[in-house]
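A.,

Following up on our hallway conversation. Structure tokens first:
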């Protein structure tokens, strides 16, 4: 149960970070607060900041909302003992980690700038994966 609480808290952090990036991308925020030499702005104004016409941060918002919902659902009294929510958290967080690695590769090798907020989001999704994976039921040894 604690792993689902941790996953929910982490998903909330990821949701806040992604929402901040999305609000910047949509022009609601004038400037983005980022440590360094403008890497966040450069990344978030690059042609890679949208995918299929949708801001990448919107995918983050959607992903963290789904992860938060699954983690909270898994905290229900009738779900606590069942591993289903944890398995979903692991599977979806794994997809998020792969997507974050893809985005990091774009930052490092194509855009040549690193967005601190994007890296925070990547660390959060990795933490959700680790927390959830550690709580998966252990397979029983074969007879």
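Then the amino acids I'd put at each of the 143 positions:
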């Amino acid at each position: 149960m604690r792993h689902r609480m941790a996953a929910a808290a982490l998903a909330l952090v990821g949701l806040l970070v992604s929402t901040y990036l999305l609000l910047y991308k949509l022009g609601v925020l004038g400037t983005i607060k980022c440590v360094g030499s403008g890497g966040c702005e450069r990344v978030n104004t690059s042609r890679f900041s949208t995918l299929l016409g949708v801001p990448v941060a919107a995918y983050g918002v959607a992903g963290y909302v789904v992860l938060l919902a699954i983690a909270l659902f898994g905290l229900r009294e009738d779900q606590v003992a069942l591993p289903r929510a944890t398995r979903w958290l692991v599977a979806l967080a794994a997809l998020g980690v792969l997507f974050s690695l893809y985005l990091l590769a774009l930052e490092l090798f194509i855009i040549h700038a690193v967005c601190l907020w994007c890296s925070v989001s990547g660390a959060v999704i990795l933490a959700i994966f680790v927390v959830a994976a550690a709580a998966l039921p252990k397979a029983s040894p074969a007879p």
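The chain has a mean pLDDT of 92. Curious whether your intuition agrees with the design.

B.
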